[in-house]
Write a structure and sequence with these properties.
This protein is α+β, with helices and mostly antiparallel strands. It folds into two domains: 122 residues, Jelly Rolls; 86 residues, SGNH hydrolase (Rossmann fold), CATH 3.40.50.1110. The protein is built from five helices and 14 strands. Strands 4, 5, 7, 8, 10 and 12 form a six-stranded antiparallel β-sheet that branches. Strands 3-11-6-9 form a four-stranded antiparallel β-sheet, with no helix packed on it. It has a two-stranded antiparallel ribbon with strand order 1-2. The N terminus and C terminus are likely disordered. The protein binds 2-acetamido-2-deoxy-beta-D-glucopyranose (NAG) (3 copies). The site of one 2-acetamido-2-deoxy-beta-D-glucopyranose has 3 residues, from loops. Keywords: Signal. It comes from Coniochaeta pulveracea.
């Protein structure tokens, strides 16, 4: 008998091979660069608190996202969508985005940067069925990272349109499995996401973090369990401790 478990062998493989294989294909780890310099004169801009923007999952009053796969959604006219991110964005974090419920596209976004997500070259941007206006959605892929929304931009003279919420709401509360740890697109390939998205006509949020316990105790680096942390906007990440203070524990203005 070799002294290795299967998991250890898999863990060693990337050191040897250098590429990650997924279903026999090389996994993509470089994504299109969407960063661009905004010329404010050609855009109509909305603040992060615009009532046309619907936020899913946990976002705080500074429009900073928390937990797994938080997102936003709005309708837009024209064929351009850009977003300026605030300085609390995790620099380089991978986000998924899409229009009209089509396939997710992925790009890394930057702290204090503006990114162009939709332009005349975007596949499907001229479709007007079944959505008119088209919807734009964005979700953060990794539970430990987040974005801060500063502004949303559409082409000059165009506008954002509020989309009516789905008839059903689902919140998945969990740990690594629900948050998508070790899956290809993390939160966007977790079972929590698959359940929420698969149900259709459902607003879903995933209040999950790897290693967190249901009982309020220190588990795998999470100082508090869901019995406590679920009542707070932010999760148990290092990011939360930097922003709100405390030992990996975020209590907005309250002490832990
Ligand atoms: C958004 O925030 C600004 C400045 O804080 C405030 O003046 C405005 O009324 C807010 N808008 C909405 C729709 O809440
Ligand atoms: C973001 O900017 C605000 C206001 O300038 C500042 O107080 C805060 O420390 C900055 N945060 C980071 C992570 O740089
Ligand atoms: C983009 O995100 C992926 C997934 O987190 C990461 O592996 C990659 O290094 C990031 N790329 C950049 C340029 O930040």
């Amino acid at each position: 008998m070799l002294g290795f478990t299967t998991a250890q062998l898999f863990g060693l493989l990337p050191l040897v091979a250098g590429t990650i294989l997924m279903n026999g294909q090389e996994k993509v780890t470089s994504y299109p660069n969407t960063k661009f310099d905004l010329d404010a004169t050609s855009f109509t801009s909305y603040a992060a608190n615009a009532s046309e923007i619907s936020y899913q999952g946990r976002w705080d009053s500074k429009h900073v996202s928390w937990w797994s796969a938080p997102g936003l959604k709005f309708g837009f006219t024209g064929s351009t969508v850009a977003i300026s991110f605030g300085n609390w964005t995790s620099d380089g974090v991978l986000v998924g985005y899409r229009i009209g419920g089509m396939d997710w596209q992925f790009t890394n976004v930057t702290a204090s940067g503006t990114h162009l997500f939709v332009s005349k070259d975007t596949a499907g941007v001229s479709e007007t069925w079944p959505y008119n206006p088209l919807t734009f959605e964005l979700r953060v892929t990794n539970w430990a990272y987040g974005v801060q929304i500063d502004q949303v931009h559409v082409a000059k003279g165009e506008k954002l349109v509020k989309v009516s919420p789905a008839s059903r709401r689902l919140e998945v509360i969990g740990d690594s499995l629900a948050s998508g740890m070790y899956t290809s697109y993390e939160g966007l390939s977790s079972w929590g996401y698959a359940l929420g998205a698969g149900l259709g006509d459902t607003e879903y949020s995933i209040t999950a973090y790897p290693g967190i316990c249901a009982a309020d105790q220190d588990c795998w680096g999470n100082p508090r369990g869901q019995m406590h942390q679920w009542f707070y906007t932010s999760d148990t990440s290092y990011r939360a401790s930097v922003m709100y203070g405390g030992k990996y524990c975020s209590c907005n203005s309250n002490p832990c």
